[in-house]
Amino acid sequence: MEEKVNFVMVGVFVLALSAALIGGVLWLSSSKSYRASYDIYQTYMPDSVAGLNLDAPVRYRGVEVGRVQKITLAPGNVEQVQLTLAIERGVPVKVDTVAILQVQGLTGIAYVELTGGGRDSPPLQKQANDSYPVIKSGPSLMTRLDSAVTVLLTNLNRTSENLNAVLDEDNRRAVKSTLADLAVLSRTLAARSGTIDASLAAAAHTLKNVSRLSDELPQLIQRVQRSADAFDRMSNELAHAGARAGSTLDSAQQFSASTLPEVHQLVLELRDLTVSLRHVSDQLEQDPSVLLRGKPQAKPGPGE
Question: How many domains does the chain have?
Answer without folding.
Answer: 1
